[in-house]
C-alpha cells in the first residue's frame, strides 16, 4: 500500500489498534523520566487524535495536505512527554509526505532530527535513540536493498525493534528496573504498524510483542524526587519567540519538549516545581491555551 490518504489512514488506525492492545504493558514499563505509568495511554491518545484527522481527510486530497492535518491533530492531542515527541516525529514525516522507499528513509531522518531538537536535554536509551536507529536502518535499506516502500518500512521497524532491546544498556534507570524504555516500545509498535500496512500483508495475530519487566524488578513509586508538576499547554506564538521560551523553561525544570511550528502553533511540555513561572513564560511568548497541570 502507498502512503497516500488511504495508506496514511490505514497506518494511523493500525497504530491505534496496536497501542490499544499493549498500552497497559507499556505503562508498566514506564520509569523514565517519571514512573507515572501513563506512557502507553499517552501514545495511544496521541495516535487516536491523528487517526481522527486521517478519517476526516478527503480521500481525493493531496497527500501532503492529509499528512499536515494528521501531524497538527497529533500535536493538538498529544499527551505527556512521549506523546509530544511522537507528534513531532509525525510532523517530520508530514513535511516530506513520503511516497517511495527513499522518501521514507529521508523523512524518518528528518523526523528524528526534529524530535531531538525539540527536547531540552536529549537522553539516549529512549524513544529518540530508537527513532534514530529506525532512520539509520531505513537509510541503509534504501541504499543497499531493493529500495521499495515496503522494504524500507520493514527495515525501519526491524532497526527500531533491535534498538529497543539495547535501551537498558544505555540508561541506568532502565537497567535497575529491568525494563526497556516505555516510549521506545510504543514507537516500535507504531513503526511495525507502518511496515505491516506498507507490505499489504495481514496484521500478525495477537497483540504486538512488548518485552516484560525482568522477574524480581518493580517499578519505583512516584516519590516526589523530581519536579512536582507536569505542565502542558498549546501556544500560539511566532517562531522567533520559541528560543527564549525554551531557555526560560529549561531554567525552571526538566523533561522539556517544545514541538510544532505548524501555522505558529506549538505544544509545550515541562516538569516544574512552580507552575506560575512556566505559564508566565508562555504568556510572554504568545497565547497559551488548553493548559493542563
What descriptive keywords fit this protein?
293 residues, alpha+beta, four-stranded antiparallel beta sheet, 60% helix
Topology:
Elements: H1 5-29, H2 39-56, H3 63-77, H4 80-94, H5 101-118, H6 127-144, H7 149-170, H8 172-177, H9 182-199, E1 229-236, H10 242-252, E2 253-262, E3 265-272, H11 275-285, E4 287-292
Antiparallel strand pairs: 1-3, 1-4, 2-3
Helix pairs in contact: 1-2, 1-9, 2-3, 2-4, 3-4, 4-5, 5-6, 5-7, 6-7, 6-9, 7-9, 10-11
Residue windows where pLDDT falls under 50 for at least 5 positions: none
Q: Based on CA inertia axes, which overall geometry fits?
A: globular
Beta-strand residue percentage: 5-15%
What is the radius of gyration?
A: 18 Å
Which structural class fits the helix and strand makeup? alpha+beta
Summarize the helix and strand pattern as letters. Answer: HHHHHHHHHEHEEHE
- Mean pLDDT rating: 90
Largest sheet: 4 strands, antiparallel
Q: In which range does the helix fraction lie?
A: 55-70%
CA-CA gap between termini: 41 Å
Strand arrangement in the largest pleated sheet = 2-3-1-4
- How many DSSP helices? 11
- Structure summary, number of beta strands: 4
Amino acid at each position: 500500500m502507498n502512503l497516500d490518504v488511504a495508506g496514511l489512514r490505514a497506518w494511523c488506525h493500525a497504530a491505534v489498534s496496536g497501542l490499544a492492545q499493549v498500552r497497559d504493558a507499556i505503562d508498566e514499563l514506564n520509569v523514565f523520566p517519571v514512573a507515572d505509568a501513563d506512557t502507553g495511554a499517552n501514545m495511544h491518545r496521541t495516535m487516536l487524535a491523528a487517526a481522527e484527522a486521517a478519517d476526516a481527510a478527503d480521500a481525493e486530497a493531496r497527500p501532503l495536505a492529509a499528512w499536515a492535518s494528521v501531524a497538527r491533530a497529533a500535536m493538538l492531542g498529544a499527551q505527556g512527554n512521549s506523546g509530544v515527541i511522537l507528534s513531532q516525529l509525525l510532523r517530520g514525516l508530514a513535511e516530506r509526505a513520503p511516497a517511495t522507499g527513499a522518501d521514507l528513509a529521508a523523512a524518518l531522518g528528518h523526523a528524528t532530527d526534529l524530535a531531538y531538537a525539540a527536547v531540552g536535554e536529549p537522553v539516549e536509551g529512549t524513544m529518540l535513540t530508537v527513532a534514530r536507529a529506525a532512520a539509520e536502518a531505513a537509510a541503509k535499506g534504501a541504499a543497499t536493498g531493493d529500495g521499495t516502500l515496503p522494504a524500507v518500512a520493514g527495515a525501519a521497524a526491524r532497526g527500531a525493534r533491535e534498538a529497543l532491546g539495547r535501551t537498558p544498556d544505555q540508561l541506568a534507570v532502565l537497567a535497575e528496573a529491568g525494563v526497556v524504555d516505555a516510549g521506545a516500545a510504543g514507537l516500535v509498535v507504531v513503526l511495525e504498524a507502518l511496515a505491516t500496512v506498507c507490505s499489504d500483508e495481514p496484521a500478525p495475530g495477537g497483540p504486538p510483542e512488548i518485552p516484560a519487566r525482568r522477574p524480581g524488578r518493580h517499578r519505583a513509586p512516584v516519590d516526589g524526587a523530581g519536579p512536582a508538576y507536569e505542565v502542558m499547554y498549546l501556544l500560539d506564538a511566532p517562531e522567533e519567540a520559541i528560543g527564549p521560551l525554551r531557555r526560560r523553561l529549561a531554567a525552571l525544570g526538566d523533561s522539556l519538549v517544545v514541538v510544532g511550528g505548524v501555522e505558529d502553533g506549538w505544544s509545550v511540555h515541562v516538569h516544574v516545581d512552580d507552575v506560575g513561572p512556566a505559564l508566565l513564560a508562555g504568556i510572554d511568548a504568545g497565547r497559551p491555551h488548553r493548559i493542563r497541570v
